[in-house]
Amino acid sequence: MKKLALVVLLICAVIGVAYASPVRSTGVKDIQMGEMLTRAFDASQAQAEGYYVHNWSIVNQTFMTMDELAQMAQKMNSVLQIPNAQENKINGERQYVYQLYGRWDPSTEVSLALTTMNLQGQQPQTVLVIKIERDSNRVQDITQSVEKVKSTAAQIGVSPQISTCIKGFYNDRIDSMGRNQIIGRVFKAVNANEVEGIRSDSLVSVSGYSPLSKEYIKTNGKRMNLQVAVHYDAFQKKTRILVGSPIVTIEY
To answer: Signal peptide position in this chain (predicted)?
Structure first.
């Protein structure tokens, strides 16, 4: 149980840092985040493996009871609709976690976790984490998953802070020039401009901004809503690619 609590807190910390600058809107009516991401991934010409949709949101600045967390989670699950959801509770001295988890189908894991904290020297806080993880080459459903998460957060009046990612691979080992060419195709497909990047012999990871999506974060005063990472997996002997929006928040 202590291990699960640590994992929940780690997820909150990592995604919270990623969204230190919140998701914003350009105010124009453009394509949705999931649609932009699908278009970008298609341009990579990689074989799809699955996708992630993660949400981290601050619910309030209150230390809630376990019963209050449970009631809130059940209300949200009326929209998220985890079938036969399993329940997990963690009771700590200064922290409670209430989690519902299960599968939409054999390929898709879904979880909803509310964590309330009253840590010494810090303001009380309750946060919401929603995760959808799909292991399938059918990634077209990512847009529906994003919208489902938004609707779920709206049930309790919370602003969603969503990160998405499509993962894939190539059966060949691709050199640094080839990796840069892949990223060039991806950026061109969604009219994106590079904001910052890391390039080495084993990894290319580039972040940018596409005007096609109305959602973005700001980093160092610049808009960002796309990240592409390509690296060689020596164990599997494959080149792997992650295409995320607004940034990739999973390990690579």
So the answer is: 1-20
- Residue 250 domain-assigned (yes or no): no
Exposed/middle/buried for 86, CB within 10 Å: 0-12, 13-18, 19+? Answer: exposed
Task: Specify the pTM.
Answer: 0.85
- How far apart, in whole angstroms, are the C-alpha atoms of residue 78 and residue 60? 21
Measured CA to CA in angstroms, residue 63 lies from 55, 66, 93, 116 at distances of 20, 10, 12, 6
Looking at the domain assignment, is residue 252 inside a domain?
Answer: no
Other beta carbons within 10 Å of 31 = 16
Alpha carbon distance 144, 81 (integer Å): 13
Q: What is the CA radius of gyration of the chain?
A: 19
Whether 108 maps to a domain, the answer reads yes
Q: Which domain holds residue 216?
A: 2-245
Cα–Cα distance for residue pair 43/26, rounded to 1 Å: 24
Distance CA 215, CA 225 (A): 7
8-state DSSP, 184: H
Answer yes or no: are the C-beta atoms of 214 and 191 closer than 8 Å. Answer: no
Give the tens place of pLDDT for each residue, 12-55.
434 444 444 455 544 444 678 889 999 999 999 999 999 999 99
The amino acid at residue 115 is T
- 12 contacts: CB under 8 Å, gap ≥ 6: 56, 115, 127, 129
CATH code: domain of residue 94: 3.30.2030.10
Number of domains in the chain: 1
Place of tokens 């295409």: 243
